[in-house]
Amino acid sequence: MADNEILQMHDLKPAPGANRDRIRVGRGEGSKGKTAGRGAKGQTKRYHVRPGFEGGQLPLYMRLPKLRGFKNPFKVEFQVVNIAKLAEVFPQGGEITAADLVAKGVVRNNAPVKVLGEGETTVAFTLKGVKASASAKAKIEAAGGSVSED
Questions:
Q1: pLDDT of residue 1
Q2: How far is residue 29's CA from residue 68's CA, in Å, rounded to a whole number?
Q3: Are 122 and 142 in contact (CB under 8 A)?
Q4: What is the pLDDT of residues 46-102, one digit of tens each?
Q5: Predicted TM-score (pTM) above 0.70
Q6: Residue 128 in contact with residue 149, Cβ under 8 Å?
Q7: How many CA atoms lie within 13 A of 34 on its CB side?
Q8: What is the dihedral of CA 64, 69, 75, 79, to 10 degrees?
Q9: Bridge partners for 82 per DSSP
Q10: What is the DSSP letter of 91?
Q11: Which helix (H) or strand (E) holds 147?
Q12: Residues 120 and 138 sit within 8 Å (Cβ to Cβ)
């Protein structure tokens, strides 16, 4: 090809040594024949041993215990707060919502809250959107407060 000629598609060819024929194993002694890259005699030479096969020994997946029990995907996990903690964080009492508890760092966001009855209170709490145990409800109402779960 001369220097002033334009390179054409039909002039292109791969670089020397770039294209090699693939090795066709097990096709006679002349080309990677005989053992075909599988080594000497034995179980792994003779086609296939499935993954996890331990030569007849009891395999790992059978030695381990089975999964037991049941995990309910719809179980609701409440974050608990005791009355003592409420009295400590809100000493003046007043209306308390789940958002107020999150703002004060008492509970995490995005999980329902339940107030339990450990501790005492003298100030009146008005709990809104928060569940309460029977003992907590009794103590809050005795102090002049109220609980509404909606």
A1: 59
A2: 55
A3: no
A4: 777 888 888 889 999 999 998 888 999 999 999 999 999 998 999 888 899 999 999
A5: no
A6: no
A7: 6
A8: -60
A9: 116
A10: T
A11: strand 146-148
A12: no
Instruction: Note whether 83 and 116 are within 8 A (CB).
Output: yes
Task: Sketch the domain layout of the chain as residue ranges.
Answer: 79-148
Residues 6+ apart with CB under 8 A from 64: none
Element holding 62 (H helix, E strand): helix 60-63
- The token pair at 100 is 């107020």
User: Quick check: 140 pLDDT over 70?
Assistant: yes
Q: Which amino acid is at 140?
A: I
Query: How much is the pLDDT for 2?
Result: 63
Distance (Å, whole) CA 13 – CA 104: 74
Side-chain-side CA neighbours of residue 49 (13 Å)? 11
- Judged by DSSP in three states, 65 sits in coil
Residue 84: phi, psi to the nearest 5? -60, -40
Cα(13)–Cα(148) distance, rounded to whole angstroms?
83
pLDDT the model gives residue 80: 93
Query: What CATH number was assigned to the domain covering residues 79-148?
Result: 3.100.10.10
Place of tokens 């002049």: 144
